[in-house]
Write a structure and sequence with these properties.
It comes from Yoonia maritima. This protein has four helices and seven strands, in the order βαβββαβαβαβ. The protein is α/β, with parallel strands linked by helices and about 140 residues long. Strand 6, helix 4 and strand 7 form a beta-alpha-beta unit. The structure holds adenosine-5'-triphosphate (ATP) and magnesium ion (MG).
């Protein structure tokens, strides 16, 4: 049933669980596995007198942190006996970038964590997992 599975990885515990679940689904359906990460270094600001100046995001640092994240995802998949058919580090808003990647891969399943690194513990789902579940053109599995 599932031939191409995209798993969204942000390095959080929920996303680690998503990788392991995606590996299990790939086993069951003999599917290809794709991983996508969207680096999220937030703008930094420095105080200048009474106001603040936003420093530009360092693109190189962004790519580097992306590579580290993909390596971690690859380690987890390897532990479950898998290698990814593709690894993507994409710019932009995470939800949109993950959806675009899923379309590009012709994915029939997206696996994500229920939460990520966000601090709003009272809310059931993060904004990215919510976006994926509500807007994807394919099935979505949200993992705790
Ligand atoms: N930048 C990202 N790159 C790849 N996958 C991501 C990214 N951000 C989130 N995800 C995926 O979405 C899942 C849910 O994360 P989400 O960001 O929705 O929750 P949160 O961080 O707790 O909340 P919020 O970001 O809304 O404060 C993660 O476990 C991961 O699978
Ligand atoms: Mg988040």
């Amino acid at each position: 049933m599932f031939k191409d599975i995209v798993v969204a990885f942000d390095g959080s515990k929920h996303a680690e669980a998503a990788i392991l679940t995606a590996c299990d689904m790939a086993d069951r359906y003999s599917a290809k596995l794709h991983v996508v990460h969207v680096p999220e270094l937030h703008d930094q600001a420095i105080a200048v007198g009474a106001s603040a100046v936003v420093l530009p995001v360092d693109e190189e640092a962004l790519q580097e942190s992306g590579q580290t994240m993909i390596k971690r995802a690859e380690q987890l998949a390897k532990g479950a006996g898998h290698t990814f058919s593709s690894t993507d580090i994409l710019p932009g808003a995470p939800g949109d970038a993950i959806l675009a990647s899923a379309t590009e891969k012709g994915a029939d399943l997206i696996v994500s964590g229920r939460r990520g690194h966000g601090q709003l513990k009272g809310i059931l789902m993060g904004s990215v997992s919510q976006k994926l579940a509500s807007s994807a053109d394919c099935a979505v599995l949200t993992v705790k």
